[in-house]
User: Fold 8-amino-7-oxononanoate synthase from Thiothrix caldifontis.
Amino acid sequence: MSADPKFTKIRSELDLRRSRHLYRSTRISDSPQHPHMHIDGKPLLAFCSNDYLGLANHPAVIQAFQQAANIYGVGSGAAHLVNGHSRPHQQLEEALAAFTGRERALLFSTGYMANLGVVNALLSGRNDVVYADRLNHASLVDAGLLSGAKLIRYPHNDTTSLGKRLLAQADNANTQLILTDGVFSMDGDVAPLAKLAVMARHHDAWLMVDDAHGFGVLGNTGAGLVEAQGLTPTDVPILMATLGKALGTAGAFIAGSHDLIEYLIQTARTFIYTTAQPPAIAAATLASLQLVQTESWRREQLLALIQQFRQGATQLGLPLMASDTAIQPILVGSSGQALAISRQLEERGLLVTAIRPPTVPDGTARLRVTLSAAHTATDVEQLLTALAQIWT
Ligand code: PMP
Assistant:
């Protein structure tokens, strides 16, 4: 072991994390995303994927990926604005714009990059203000911090507090942006978009919704939370969604007006200065978008499983959170206890990750159960049986 004090310092930080049950490590999977996985050499029934519709491993999606790889190769080779923008990218952008009812859409290589890119393109200085829900995803928090604008975090889904903060800034704010998750990634509840849209309009602020966990899943056609809550593109002028969750592939997009997208193409640094996602990913996403639109039974199956899980867990007296979505966390509190329950589940062949600070606030460690249309009622029954044994 190195005696270099720099390393001594990072080793003691690692030790501290271990002692607080906050240490994290990766697991090795030898199987595709599917409820029945092979992880670290063990068969496990997984309840922690964001593959909400079971499309990550769909034969039509795989085939589209393979065919495009045969034509376009593996890598895109360059950024979109150089020569990395292929026909599948263009087709996907057009399909995403049409599906979300917007004039244009713009692909980003990841959701993290999309959030950094938009916020930093729109806000430039100290007189600009970002209002962010306290439980927003880390990428939205980082986007606000990096922008150099004044970052004001408001209590979770508390539009009254947000209103007070907007009023307090009214006289000296330049560009203002209200930023919120659509479905909150670690809680599963949803943002009150109608109220936020009214406030944004009233204060002449942008409203941007990160619908990473709603896109594909919520709304009659799967267009996401904006559709589910009966809002229009004018209400939510900046929509962000990721493609690595319900769509089962990778990457993200921003959908909005022609002017917004043109502005992002000129100014969003995480669009301009990064390699385009592989064309085969775009082709695979086009195939999965088609399945989202044609196979509504996947959303129905998911909804039935959510209801089954909530009913069973309520009967067991488990501390569920107020969520109707595929994210069904069980609140535990202490990180050590959440880890211990996760381990006990694993001994019974089930994989549910313990989510701990700083991903969630201190004292709110939880088991983040996620459901997928690829699960069966028997899978959910198996999870409930194991939870019943552990909880008693
Ligand atoms: N926003 C939210 C709400 C997310 O949950 C995630 C991913 N966990 C992201 C953004 C980042 O997306 P990506 O994984 O594509 O970088």
User: Anything to note?
Assistant: The pocket of 4'-deoxy-4'-aminopyridoxal-5'-phosphate is lined by residues 110-112, 115, 137, 139, 181, 185, 210, 212, 242, 244, 252 (CB under 6 Å). The domain at 59-294 is CATH 3.40.640.10 (Aspartate Aminotransferase; domain 2). The mean pLDDT is 96. The chain has two domains: 24-53+296-391, 59-294.
